[in-house]
Every structure is written in structure tokens, then in C-alpha cells.
Amino acid sequence: MGAAPRLVSNPELSNIQKAAVFVMYLEREAARALLRNLTDDEVKLIGAAINGLGEVDESVVESVVGDFVDELSAVSILPSTGPDFARNVLPDLLDDDRRPRIAAAMRRQGANTFEAFINARPPNAVASVLCDEHPQVRAVALLRMGPENAARVLACFTEDQRSDVTIRMARAERVDAEMVDDVEAALRRALGHLDEPTQMGGVENTARILGRMSRDDNSALLGRVRLVEEDLAEDLQRRMVVFEDLIRLEGRAIQTLLRGLDRPDLVLALKGASQELRDQFLANLSTRASSDLLEEIELSGRVRKSQIREAQDRVVAVARRLADEGAIDLDMGGADDAGK
Fold first, then answer.
1. In the structure, what pLDDT confidence band is assigned to residue 100 with cuts at 50, 70 and 90?
2. How many domains would you assign to the chain?
3. What are phi and psi of 82, to 5 degrees?
4. What are the φ and ψ backbone dihedral angles of 280, each rounded to 5 degrees?
């Protein structure tokens, strides 16, 4: 591959590329201070532009920097707001013996910034973090995040947790300032990444994990979950096996399942199935029955995905019922479970 083209004039650059050249020109500490005040999306755009730049002439660098200087009334790099400056910059300007005292006071005066931080995070995520903390920490955190935020987070707790933390909040007239700072800092660290949340698929993925355990193990585990949250246990059990998992059934089990299915459900379910799973079902029918079923699938025309999913759910429900009756083995556990 050839090298990226040499950029010889300022007009060749887009605004993003100009920003990229400017960041590359700055000393490291100055660049760090600048990037700290940009959003993640802005930093990503600049990073992509830097990655795409070829060799840049010195004249282009001078021109870009000159444009920035002309457009700015001051070349100092300042945070976008006063609270940002007070929290992120001012402490670094103080000598070591004054910094902890002043920084702590500024954080306490800027409580509204903590409220805004929590407000931008999902209440269930905040509650999940707090559930791992000491009950007194929960109380302090709720008192510091503002009434609206606290009410939403409190609603995510269990009834026992709600009553306990309510009593603790009511009794917390005065709390050590360092503890308050530590609680806020810990929540910022734990929740800071949620600007770009990672989808975990909580119930869905948990159910699939349980579905890969032996029946004895997942039944025992679901029994314990059911004692705490019956609805959750039912939801997990319902999702442990999905339609595509039926590919792991043996031929005799598929034949038993086929006898228990309504024909329209079978047609719709196989219409949305993978080719491998469809072939496995067809292989357990006679040649004539397989041909007839394929013809019905083709003649069914366009069908909404929701209808296909509902039909597949009904097929799985029949499979689960047959498994409960002992007619088929629906244990999705691995081979290691066989000896249990």
C-alpha cells in the first residue's frame, strides 16, 4: 500500500482534520487538557481524522494554528463551565498542602453537579451499584443525589432495602465530609462508563446460561430464585430454551415433538428457522410429509416476524411440557453433565 497523500495546503483540510492537526501540534499536557473538555464522540472523530492524515507540511501546521489563534479571544484552554473548572482544574493549580482541603470544599459546594451526574444514569444501574455497598453508604448516596434521583433509585430496591435505607437517611443529620466525598467519588468511578452503556441482556443471557446447566442444577437454582422473586424465576425458566436450541434434540425426541404440535405453528416456526434446524425437522418426517410441509411453508407467503416468534414460542412451550412429562429429554446442558 502506498503512503497517505502529503497535505500541502490548509484548504485541503476539513474542520475535523484541522482539529486533528492542532491536537498533534500541541504539547502532550496541553493536548490532554484540551481533549478532557471534549465529548467522547468528538474525541473519536478527531482520533479517526489523525489516523487518516498523511504527512503534513509545516506550512499547513502554521496555517491551522494561526486560524485557531485568530478565532479565539484567548488561547487558554478552559473547561466549558465554572463547576468543571472548579472540580477538574482548580485543584491542580494549588500546592500539595492546600489541595485536599480546597478540593473537598469545592466538591461539597458543587453537589448539584453530582445530581446531574446521577440523573444521566439509569436508576436501576445506580441501584445495582449501591446494593453492593454498606447500607450507610446507600443512605449517604441517596441523600446527596437529589430528591428526584433518589426516589427513582429507591424504587429499584427491595422492600426490605427501602425500609432500612429510609430509616438510615432519616437519622443521618451530620455525616463526616470525607465519607461524603468518598461515596460520591466511588459512584462516579463505578458509573462513569455508562455514558456508553454496554448491553448485557440481563434476563435473556442469564436464562441461556441456566439453560446450559444440567436440569438438576438449574432446577435447584431456580427454586432459590423463586423464593425471592417468583416472577423472575418464571421468566428465566420460560427463556432457558429458545426455538433454535431444539437443534440439539435427538431424532426420536423431534418425532415425539412433531406429534404434539399444531400444524400452523409448525409451518410458521420452521419458516423463520435456520436451514439446519429446518432440515433436522424435515429429516424426521416421511418423504411425502416432508414435501407437503415444505410446500406449505413456501405457500405461507410473507409473515410478520412477531407471528413467527409467537409460533416458535408455542413450539418451545410444547417441548417444555413434553420434557416435564418425561416424554423427551430437553436438557440443554453440556456433555460433562451426563455423569451427574
1. low
2. 4
3. -60, -45
4. -65, -40
Phi, psi of 56 (to 5 degrees): -110, 125
- Is residue 245 within 8 Å of 271, Cβ to Cβ? no
In terms of Cβ atoms closer than 10 Å to its own Cβ (0-12, 13-18, 19+), residue 309 is middle
CATH of the domain at 291: 1.10.220.30
Cα 142 off chain centre by: 23
Q: In degrees rounded to 5, what are phi and psi of residue 28? A: -60, -45
Look up the domain containing 36 and give its range: 10-71
Residues 184 and 227 in one domain: no
Could you tell me if 122 and 187 lie in one domain? yes
Question: How many other β-carbons are positioned within 10 Å of the β-carbon of residue 289?
Answer: 12
Question: For residue 84, is it within any domain?
Answer: no
Same domain, 64 and 28: yes
- Assess if residue 104 is contained within a domain: no
Q: pLDDT grade, residue 194 (50/70/90)?
A: low
* Whether residues 272 and 305 fall in one domain: yes
Q: Which of 71, 93, 119 is the endpoint of a domain? A: 71
Phi-psi region of 146 (alpha: psi -120 to 50; beta: other; left: phi over 0): left
pLDDT band per the 50, 70, 90 thresholds, residue 154: very high
Q: How much is the pTM?
A: 0.41
Mean pLDDT over each residue of the chain, to the nearest integer: 79
Answer left, alpha or beta for residue 271, where phi above 0 means left and psi between -120 and 50 means alpha.
Answer: alpha
